[in-house]
Design brief:
The protein is an alpha/beta fold. 42% of the residues lie in helices and 14% in strands. Strand 3, helix 3 and strand 4 form a beta-alpha-beta unit. The longest helix has 18 residues, at 98-115. The protein is globular, with a radius of gyration of 17 Å.
Length: 242
């Protein structure tokens, strides 16, 4: 089996891929690390690269969501990717609207920290589960409560998030990337109902940089296809890596 590295988004964990893993593991040896503690995107890319090194992977197919999609592109530029499937990769803004997105992320972090002690009660109701997933999925009924609890508590435990947001806001371009160095096969997937990185405005930089990538837009899907439509997300990875 060939290796596949799956990278999560900002304040998420490697378990964001749980629902897609059974399908992915039928064809790949999957590494889905949780990246924590870094206060810049570049440092997170270094951490992802170390995880590959520790697993003995010189190269691998790489899938990533949101910030993880950006990290996948960075690793490709470093020569570590056999192919990349990026779901709503961060860093695709052509203007400074990313600042509003980071402000939203800061509010989500603060609200989630306040909600964390009541996680069980909040997620015990359909209304609570809908609120907990409103920025990441259109569908939520199929996501196990245990996984939602893990994710909510994971956001609350993202202690490096405020520093990473502050560092990004002080930078003119927090997501540097040399597109010409991304030479592996590239598929970019975006949910048309993405509320966190709205299509197509949050993708303009990448649409200009990667016009020959395989671009796929999923109707009725939100920011995290691996949670929203896990089987379809897995097939979009497998159909490309094969």
């Amino acid at each position: 089996m060939t290796p596949l590295v799956c990278l999560h988004g900002f304040m998420d964990t490697g378990r964001t891929w749980d629902l897609a893993l059974p399908a992915l593991e039928r064809e790949h040896e999957v590494l889905a690390p949780t990246l924590r503690g870094a206060t810049s995107a570049e440092a997170l890319a270094d951490e992802a690269e170390r995880a590959m090194d520790e697993a003995g992977l010189a190269t691998a197919h790489i899938a990533g969501n949101s910030l993880g999609g950006y990290l996948a592109l960075v690793l490709a530029a470093r020569g570590r990717a056999r192919s990349v499937v990026a779901f709503a990769p961060a860093g695709g803004w052509a203007d400074d609207s990313w600042r509003a997105t980071l402000a939203l992320q800061a509010r989500i972090y603060e609200q989630t920290k306040l909600a964390a002690p009541r996680a069980d009660a909040i997620l015990a109701t359909p209304e609570g589960r809908r609120r907990a997933t409103e920025y990441i999925t259109v569908r939520y009924e199929h996501i196990p409560v245990e996984l939602l609890t893990h994710q909510l508590l994971g956001v609350a435990a993202s202690d490096a998030a405020p520093a990473m947001i502050e560092n990004a806001l002080r930078s003119e371009q927090p997501w540097p990337l040399d597109p010409e160095r991304v030479t592996c096969p590239l598929r970019i997937v975006w949910g048309a109902e993405d509320r966190l990185l709205p299509w197509p405005t949050a993708a303009e930089r990448y649409r200009a940089a990667f016009p020959n990538a395989d671009w796929i837009v999923l109707d009725g899907v939100g920011h995290c296809p691996q949670l929203d439509v896990p089987l379809e997300a897995a097939q979009l990875i497998l159909g490309f890596t094969s």
